[in-house]
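call fold(seq) -> C-alpha coordinates
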Amino acid sequence: MKATASGVTGVVLAGGLGRRMGGVDKGLTELDGRPMVEWVVERLQPQVERLLINANQNADRYGRLGHPVVADQVQGFAGPLAGLHTGLLAAATELVVTAPCDSPFLPDDLVERLRAALEAHGAQLAVARTFDQPHPVFSLVRRDVCEHLAAFLAAGGRKIDRWYGELQTVEVDFSDQAEAFRNINTPEELAQNARR
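ret:
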Protein backbone atom coordinates (compact mmCIF):
# COMPACT_ATOMS: atom_id res chain seq x y z
CA MET A 1 0.00 0.00 0.00
CA LYS A 2 1.35 3.42 -0.97
CA ALA A 3 1.76 5.95 1.81
CA THR A 4 -0.83 8.16 0.11
CA ALA A 5 -3.38 5.30 0.37
CA SER A 6 -3.49 5.51 4.17
CA GLY A 7 -6.67 7.18 5.37
CA VAL A 8 -8.42 6.96 1.98
CA THR A 9 -11.48 4.89 1.11
CA GLY A 10 -12.08 4.24 -2.56
CA VAL A 11 -15.66 4.14 -3.85
CA VAL A 12 -16.31 2.62 -7.27
CA LEU A 13 -19.51 4.17 -8.59
CA ALA A 14 -21.59 1.41 -10.19
CA GLY A 15 -25.05 2.53 -9.15
CA GLY A 16 -26.45 3.72 -12.47
CA LEU A 17 -28.94 2.17 -14.86
CA GLY A 18 -26.66 2.02 -17.91
CA ARG A 19 -29.29 3.59 -20.19
CA ARG A 20 -26.80 4.43 -22.96
CA MET A 21 -25.43 0.88 -22.77
CA GLY A 22 -28.87 -0.47 -23.59
CA GLY A 23 -30.10 -0.75 -20.00
CA VAL A 24 -27.47 -3.26 -18.89
CA ASP A 25 -25.36 -2.92 -15.77
CA LYS A 26 -22.28 -1.13 -17.15
CA GLY A 27 -19.90 -2.28 -14.46
CA LEU A 28 -20.60 -5.91 -15.34
CA THR A 29 -20.30 -5.37 -19.09
CA GLU A 30 -17.20 -7.16 -20.30
CA LEU A 31 -14.19 -5.42 -21.78
CA ASP A 32 -11.61 -7.87 -23.11
CA GLY A 33 -13.17 -10.78 -21.24
CA ARG A 34 -13.50 -9.12 -17.83
CA PRO A 35 -16.25 -6.98 -16.30
CA MET A 36 -15.32 -3.30 -16.58
CA VAL A 37 -15.57 -2.93 -12.81
CA GLU A 38 -12.70 -5.42 -12.41
CA TRP A 39 -10.38 -3.18 -14.44
CA VAL A 40 -11.37 -0.19 -12.28
CA VAL A 41 -10.90 -2.11 -9.00
CA GLU A 42 -7.50 -3.36 -10.17
CA ARG A 43 -6.28 0.20 -10.79
CA LEU A 44 -7.89 1.89 -7.77
CA GLN A 45 -7.31 -0.71 -5.03
CA PRO A 46 -3.52 -0.15 -4.69
CA GLN A 47 -4.19 3.58 -4.22
CA VAL A 48 -6.53 3.26 -1.22
CA GLU A 49 -6.67 1.76 2.25
CA ARG A 50 -10.12 0.24 1.74
CA LEU A 51 -12.40 -0.17 -1.26
CA LEU A 52 -16.21 -0.10 -1.50
CA ILE A 53 -18.44 -0.70 -4.50
CA ASN A 54 -21.58 1.41 -4.77
CA ALA A 55 -24.17 -0.64 -6.65
CA ASN A 56 -27.97 -0.66 -6.66
CA GLN A 57 -28.41 -3.96 -8.47
CA ASN A 58 -26.52 -7.25 -8.86
CA ALA A 59 -24.98 -6.88 -5.38
CA ASP A 60 -24.08 -10.58 -5.31
CA ARG A 61 -22.05 -10.34 -8.52
CA TYR A 62 -20.25 -7.21 -7.36
CA GLY A 63 -19.66 -8.87 -4.00
CA ARG A 64 -17.65 -11.62 -5.67
CA LEU A 65 -14.89 -9.06 -6.17
CA GLY A 66 -14.21 -9.27 -2.44
CA HIS A 67 -15.14 -5.74 -1.38
CA PRO A 68 -18.19 -4.46 0.52
CA VAL A 69 -21.10 -3.47 -1.72
CA VAL A 70 -23.18 -0.51 -0.58
CA ALA A 71 -26.43 0.68 -2.16
CA ASP A 72 -27.59 4.29 -2.41
CA GLN A 73 -29.30 5.66 0.69
CA VAL A 74 -31.16 8.09 -1.59
CA GLN A 75 -33.82 6.26 -3.56
CA GLY A 76 -34.48 6.34 -7.30
CA PHE A 77 -31.05 5.94 -8.95
CA ALA A 78 -30.15 9.53 -8.04
CA GLY A 79 -26.77 9.57 -9.79
CA PRO A 80 -23.12 9.80 -8.72
CA LEU A 81 -23.78 12.20 -5.84
CA ALA A 82 -25.97 9.55 -4.21
CA GLY A 83 -23.10 7.09 -4.59
CA LEU A 84 -20.65 9.53 -3.05
CA HIS A 85 -23.07 10.16 -0.18
CA THR A 86 -23.31 6.43 0.48
CA GLY A 87 -19.51 6.12 0.35
CA LEU A 88 -19.06 8.97 2.81
CA LEU A 89 -21.51 7.32 5.21
CA ALA A 90 -19.80 3.93 4.92
CA ALA A 91 -16.19 5.14 5.06
CA ALA A 92 -14.15 4.94 8.24
CA THR A 93 -11.39 7.13 6.81
CA GLU A 94 -11.04 10.91 6.66
CA LEU A 95 -10.88 10.93 2.86
CA VAL A 96 -13.00 9.29 0.14
CA VAL A 97 -12.06 9.04 -3.52
CA THR A 98 -14.54 8.15 -6.25
CA ALA A 99 -14.11 6.58 -9.67
CA PRO A 100 -16.82 5.36 -12.04
CA CYS A 101 -17.17 1.72 -13.03
CA ASP A 102 -17.01 2.62 -16.74
CA SER A 103 -13.51 4.17 -16.72
CA PRO A 104 -11.15 1.19 -16.83
CA PHE A 105 -8.04 3.23 -17.70
CA LEU A 106 -7.99 5.57 -14.68
CA PRO A 107 -4.57 6.93 -13.62
CA ASP A 108 -2.51 4.87 -11.21
CA ASP A 109 -1.45 8.09 -9.45
CA LEU A 110 -4.97 9.52 -9.18
CA VAL A 111 -5.11 9.55 -5.38
CA GLU A 112 -1.53 10.72 -4.94
CA ARG A 113 -2.04 13.80 -7.10
CA LEU A 114 -5.51 14.64 -5.82
CA ARG A 115 -4.35 14.32 -2.21
CA ALA A 116 -1.28 16.49 -2.72
CA ALA A 117 -3.46 19.29 -4.13
CA LEU A 118 -6.17 18.87 -1.48
CA GLU A 119 -3.65 19.21 1.32
CA ALA A 120 -1.62 21.99 -0.31
CA HIS A 121 -4.74 24.13 -0.78
CA GLY A 122 -6.55 23.15 2.43
CA ALA A 123 -9.51 22.26 0.21
CA GLN A 124 -12.58 20.20 1.00
CA LEU A 125 -12.60 18.52 -2.39
CA ALA A 126 -10.06 17.91 -5.17
CA VAL A 127 -11.38 17.11 -8.64
CA ALA A 128 -9.48 15.84 -11.67
CA ARG A 129 -9.38 17.99 -14.80
CA THR A 130 -8.01 17.47 -18.29
CA PHE A 131 -7.43 20.65 -20.27
CA ASP A 132 -10.59 22.71 -19.58
CA GLN A 133 -12.79 19.72 -18.71
CA PRO A 134 -13.34 18.81 -15.04
CA HIS A 135 -14.15 15.17 -14.25
CA PRO A 136 -16.23 15.42 -11.07
CA VAL A 137 -16.73 11.67 -10.70
CA PHE A 138 -12.96 11.47 -10.13
CA SER A 139 -12.69 13.38 -6.89
CA LEU A 140 -11.11 13.17 -3.46
CA VAL A 141 -13.43 14.44 -0.75
CA ARG A 142 -13.13 15.08 2.97
CA ARG A 143 -15.66 12.93 4.83
CA ASP A 144 -16.85 15.89 6.90
CA VAL A 145 -18.71 17.31 3.86
CA CYS A 146 -21.25 14.49 4.23
CA GLU A 147 -23.82 16.62 6.06
CA HIS A 148 -23.60 19.36 3.42
CA LEU A 149 -24.09 16.77 0.67
CA ALA A 150 -27.03 15.15 2.49
CA ALA A 151 -28.76 18.54 2.68
CA PHE A 152 -28.10 19.21 -1.02
CA LEU A 153 -29.60 15.83 -1.98
CA ALA A 154 -32.57 16.26 0.37
CA ALA A 155 -33.35 19.56 -1.38
CA GLY A 156 -33.48 17.72 -4.71
CA GLY A 157 -29.99 18.63 -5.89
CA ARG A 158 -28.41 16.15 -8.30
CA LYS A 159 -25.84 18.14 -10.31
CA ILE A 160 -22.42 17.24 -8.98
CA ASP A 161 -20.67 20.41 -10.17
CA ARG A 162 -23.37 22.61 -8.63
CA TRP A 163 -22.86 20.84 -5.30
CA TYR A 164 -19.09 21.12 -5.16
CA GLY A 165 -19.28 24.71 -6.44
CA GLU A 166 -20.37 25.55 -2.88
CA LEU A 167 -17.24 23.98 -1.36
CA GLN A 168 -13.56 24.89 -1.17
CA THR A 169 -12.47 23.02 -4.28
CA VAL A 170 -9.21 22.58 -6.15
CA GLU A 171 -8.98 21.27 -9.71
CA VAL A 172 -6.00 19.04 -10.42
CA ASP A 173 -4.59 19.01 -13.94
CA PHE A 174 -4.27 15.55 -15.48
CA SER A 175 -3.92 16.78 -19.07
CA ASP A 176 -0.77 14.65 -19.33
CA GLN A 177 -3.02 11.57 -18.93
CA ALA A 178 -6.18 12.71 -20.71
CA GLU A 179 -6.76 9.27 -22.23
CA ALA A 180 -6.96 7.74 -18.75
CA PHE A 181 -10.31 9.45 -18.20
CA ARG A 182 -12.05 7.84 -21.17
CA ASN A 183 -15.31 6.34 -20.08
CA ILE A 184 -17.32 3.70 -21.90
CA ASN A 185 -21.02 4.51 -22.16
CA THR A 186 -22.22 2.76 -25.30
CA PRO A 187 -21.70 -0.58 -27.08
CA GLU A 188 -19.84 1.35 -29.80
CA GLU A 189 -17.39 2.82 -27.29
CA LEU A 190 -16.96 -0.64 -25.76
CA ALA A 191 -15.97 -2.02 -29.15
CA GLN A 192 -13.60 0.88 -29.84
CA ASN A 193 -11.77 0.38 -26.55
CA ALA A 194 -11.36 -3.37 -26.72
CA ARG A 195 -7.73 -4.63 -26.74
CA ARG A 196 -6.31 -1.18 -25.93
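Residues 123 and 168 are 5 Å apart (CA to CA).
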